[in-house]
Amino acid sequence: MGRKFLRNMIAGVSLAILFGAAVANVSLKDSHPDEYYVKPGDTLWDISKVFLNKPWLWPELWHGNESIENPHLIYPGDKIILRYVDDKPRLMVDDSDSGVIKLSPSIRESDLSSPVPVIPLETIESFLRDAWVLDKDEIDRAPYILGGENQRVIFGQGDLAHVRDPETHWKNLFKNYAVFRVGERYVDEKTNEILGYEALRIGQGKVEKKSGDLISIRIEKSEEELKAGDKVMVSPPRALKSVYYPSAPDVEIEGAIVRLFGRLTSVARHDVVVINRGAREGLKEGHVLETYHRGEVVRDDQRGEIVRLPDTKSGVMVLFRVFDKVSYGLIMESYLPIYKSDIVRSPEQ
Questions:
Q1: Beta bridge partners of 218
Q2: What is the domain range of residue 283?
Q3: pLDDT at residue 57 is higher than 90
Q4: Which pLDDT value is given to residue 288?
Q5: Residue 296 counted as domain residue
Q6: Out of 53, 89, 250, 265, which residue is the most buried by the measure of CB atoms under 10 Å away?
Q7: What is the mean pLDDT of residues 120-131?
Q8: Cα(37)–Cα(44) distance, rounded to whole angstroms?
Q9: What pLDDT score was predicted for residue 87?
Q10: What does DSSP assign to residue 173?
Q11: 39 and 78 assigned to the same domain
């Protein structure tokens, strides 16, 4: 299947439409309109839900040319229209001011509003910036806060903390360090494999002096109280992505949700989850997966048999952070509450 991708070309979210060999066999909603006006707060996923049964196939409907290289933006107020070209459905932007229909979104001369993102970036920003997954060896070897001035063991902004590196004695010393706290241990419930350890950045500091295997850092920022034992590392280099290209995985995926964020028992639309599949299984950022409730096991009294009922689709997610053995996903659709241990699968074709 040919695929067309949305490419970020400028600060903020911009869209360059790149086209593959053919338009996918997308399924339009029976009740779809012929036009739609983009509203403030819309995402491309929201807009595509107006027209498509599978919102993540949005890029397949844009009509354009693969030679287009300039950034193309969609803004609140734009009029999206559905037309047929060679008997195939296409979404276009109608420039109502000039009466010209553009074959792809285009740049405004006066940027009076923000362009429309693919997914709600403010929901995942903290996970992009502050969350990491480490293995046990990385955690064991990481430097740690040992103590501070005046026998302090709790630190905040402006405090001086002493950090020990008994492994390398600060062989490679940097000016700035981030403070991480190790949290959840991710475990595959089926195989009992330890998939990694959650590490959340909770502060940062600047080196003031070094003495043997100790350095002293002045805490410049803290999201919460820092404690003796918290890990200190150079923040892993990562550019914050502002656009994701929704697509199905190249291989068949089946896994499970191993972590919920923000809620105790279940999650819903625009919540974040962790799944027990990652880069080693072929997953990439932007891949779309569907979530399912496991079918209930019941007894058929008439035949004296134990039968598992079919699984029930409960939602759709987009992966936005992919590590080796786990991935972070944003729930984009939730038809039912989504629970820890629910199944995740490649989208139905």
A1: 160, 206
A2: 254-345
A3: no
A4: 95
A5: yes
A6: 89
A7: 88
A8: 12
A9: 81
A10: -
A11: yes
Place of tokens 């028992």: 265
222's tokens: 């803290």
- pLDDT > 90: what percent of the chain? 56
Give start and end residues of each alpha helix (H) in 70-210. Answer: 121-130, 136-141
Quickly tell me which residue has 């191993």 as its tokens.
258
Give phi and psi for 233, each to the nearest 5.
-145, 160
271 shares its domain with 202: no
Helix (DSSP H) and strand (DSSP E) numbers for the chain? 3, 25
Q: Do the domain assignments include residue 154? A: yes
Q: Residues 105, 41: one domain?
A: yes
From CA 290, how far away is CA 334, in angstroms rounded?
A: 10
Render the burial of 177-215: b for 16+ CB within 10 Å, e for the rest: bbbbbbeeebebeeeeeebbbbbbbbbbbebeeeeeebb
Is the pLDDT score of 244 beyond 60? Answer: yes
Whether residue 103 contacts residue 63, with contact meaning beta carbons closer than 8 Å, is answered with: yes
What CATH number does residue 194 fall under?
Answer: 2.40.33
Total domains, the chain: 3
Residue that terminates a domain, selected from 203, 233, 263: 233
| 138 in the same domain as 114 | no
Burial, 261: exposed, middle or buried (Cβ in 10 Å; 0-12, 13-18, 19+)?
middle
- Above 80 in pLDDT, residue 64? no
